[in-house]
Write a structure and sequence with these properties.
Layout lengths: L8 H10 L5 H28 L1
């Protein structure tokens, strides 16, 4: 079984609801935080790649 890391906001939300068993509000906050984190990492990678 291959597990992939969630990428979209809804993937993070579903992960929080199903795997972490968080309520709606908590899952939404968790999904938002993780999604923003992923976007920041992606932007950093792009910046580094352009600088190289």
């Amino acid at each position: 079984m291959t597990q992939t890391r969630p990428h979209s906001w809804i993937d993070w939300y579903r992960f929080a609801r199903q795997t972490l068993d968080l309520g709606r509000t908590e899952a939404a906050a968790y999904a938002t935080a993780r999604h923003v984190e992923e976007e920041n990492r992606r932007a950093q990678r792009e910046t580094r790649r352009r600088a190289a």
